């Protein structure tokens, strides 16, 4: 495994992740919540949030600043108490088994928990001590995680000398010392350069391949699109929508199929068969509204077949998560 003490060029692991089997819908969820509520004074942050997150998956919670994403993480990780509702994490009830919940989870917050005054290795060993891991076993676990995250060469150096990407990798490595089954990552790539962000994505994929459940909050919508099995959008204290990234994209209008033709006869035939399509007579293209689903695409192709027309090029365009985000959220007066 390559390691580096300079910059963020180290890769987390050369092993290509093997796709994990899809969790059974009937299997016990890693995280579940019903009616979570939280208010600070007269300001309601969470107003009845329901969640069900399968084990061994990545769940992304999106929302504008102040929507309650961090509060949700704090409640589910036992850092603050909910005012109402019920929740279970890793099979343990938050209200009655907080100790068991804490033993089963890891949390990486928005701000690094790394102590810059000590070395990366000492940070890891400190976490091992906090988990009451015997010294010899703690050193073995620390060395293994430092190697896994490409930090072996930098392990003896003060963490204050690490780059932003290296500190974030060390932060997550520290989170993994106790072998958590559920990890909460609160905006883990904020402030990282593109290469460091992609390295972090690879780390998250490998964690899930190993059976870990990842609860991710992020301000980068392409990050949720890239990583998440399911995405929820939090707005005004409630879940505005939840589904796979593709399902959410189909909620927003603007999707279409673009058909291009090289011959004018085929183009005119398609325009007749698909009168709802927006025409571009110069480019010989049609833009037909659609949600990008397999059913809608099959219907369109059937209509072309019936008309005896074949497109030379077909491309499907769907809204991205940015469009979904803007459609489902709004600025909230403070």
TrEMBL record:
<dbReference type="Pfam" id="PF00005">
    <property type="entry name" value="ABC_tran"/>
</dbReference>
<dbReference type="InterPro" id="IPR003439">
    <property type="entry name" value="ABC_transporter-like_ATP-bd"/>
</dbReference>
<dbReference type="GO" id="GO:0005524">
    <property type="term" value="F:ATP binding"/>
</dbReference>
<dbReference type="InterPro" id="IPR003593">
    <property type="entry name" value="AAA+_ATPase"/>
</dbReference>
<dbReference type="InterPro" id="IPR050763">
    <property type="entry name" value="ABC_transporter_ATP-binding"/>
</dbReference>
<feature type="domain" description="ABC transporter">
    <location>
        <begin position="31"/>
        <end position="261"/>
    </location>
</feature>
<dbReference type="InterPro" id="IPR017871">
    <property type="entry name" value="ABC_transporter-like_CS"/>
</dbReference>
<keyword id="KW-0813">Transport</keyword>
<keyword id="KW-0547">Nucleotide-binding</keyword>
<keyword id="KW-0067">ATP-binding</keyword>
<feature type="compositionally biased region" description="Pro residues">
    <location>
        <begin position="14"/>
        <end position="26"/>
    </location>
</feature>
<dbReference type="InterPro" id="IPR027417">
    <property type="entry name" value="P-loop_NTPase"/>
</dbReference>
<feature type="region of interest" description="Disordered">
    <location>
        <begin position="1"/>
        <end position="30"/>
    </location>
</feature>
<keyword id="KW-0046">Antibiotic resistance</keyword>
<protein>
    <submittedName>
        <fullName>ATP-binding cassette domain-containing protein</fullName>
    </submittedName>
</protein>
């Amino acid at each position: 495994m390559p390691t580096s003490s300079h910059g963020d060029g180290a890769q987390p692991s050369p092993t290509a992740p093997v796709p994990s089997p899809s969790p059974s819908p009937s299997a016990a969820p890693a995280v579940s919540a019903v009616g979570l509520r939280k208010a600070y004074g007269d300001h309601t942050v969470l107003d009845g949030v329901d969640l069900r997150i399968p084990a061994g998956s990545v769940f992304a919670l999106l929302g504008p600043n102040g929507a309650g994403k961090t509060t949700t993480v704090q409640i589910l990780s036992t850092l603050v108490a909910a005012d109402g509702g019920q929740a279970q994490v890793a099979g343990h009830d938050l209200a009655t088994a907080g100790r068991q919940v804490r033993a089963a989870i890891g949390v990486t917050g928005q701000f690094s928990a790394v102590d810059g005054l000590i070395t990366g290795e000492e940070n890891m060993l400190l976490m091992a001590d906090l988990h009451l891991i015997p010294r010899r076993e703690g050193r073995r676990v620390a060395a293994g995680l430092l190697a896994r995250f490409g930090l072996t060469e930098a392990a003896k150096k003060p963490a204050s000398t690490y780059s932003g990407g290296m500190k974030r990798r060390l932060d997550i490595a520290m989170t993994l010392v106790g072998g958590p089954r559920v990890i909460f990552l609160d905006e883990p790539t904020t402030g990282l350069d593109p290469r460091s962000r992609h390295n972090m994505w690879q780390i998250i994929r490998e964690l899930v391949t190993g059976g870990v459940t990842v609860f991710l909050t992020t301000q980068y919508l392409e990050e949720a699109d890239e990583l998440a099995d399911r995405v929820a959008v939090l707005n005004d204290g409630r879940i505005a929508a939840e589904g796979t990234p593709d399902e959410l994209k189909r909620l927003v209008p603007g999707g279409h199929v673009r058909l291009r033709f090289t011959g004018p006869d085929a183009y005119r035939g398609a325009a007749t068969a698909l009168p709802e399509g927006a025409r571009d007579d110069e480019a010989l293209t049609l833009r037909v509204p659609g949600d990008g689903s397999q059913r809608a695409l099959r219907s369109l192709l059937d209509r072309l077949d019936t008309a005896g027309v074949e497109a030379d090029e077909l491309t499907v365009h769907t809204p991205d998560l940015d469009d979904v985000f803007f459609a489902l959220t709004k600025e909230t007066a403070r």
